[in-house]
Amino acid sequence: MSIKMFNENGNITIDDQVFATLAGLAAMECYGVVGMAFRNATEGIFELLKREQLTKGIKITAIEDKINIDLYIVLQYGVKISVVAENIISRIKYSVENFSGVNVDNVNIFVQGVRVQK
Question: Is it the case that residue 74 has pLDDT exceeding 60?
């Protein structure tokens, strides 16, 4: 799916991968985020994604002219999940809306695991 915008000069089509990349890069800048995990972690086993695969841990749903973002993340042990999640949500909304001009309706955070740093 993609978002289509129309103006007097023509049409603009933005693919979901663009939104996923913007959201992933914004999330990775947040303190406490170790990385992204696959969307379908089964049996409590998650795999940490490499930076090139960030978009596989993000699901974008377009509804009319707004988007919903589902983010599957792995956090660092010892951080307060609610504070990190609020930080991620605000940063993603700002980044995606500022760079694309498309409104973000919801950002849902799914913590797939916690990683202990040595």
Answer: yes
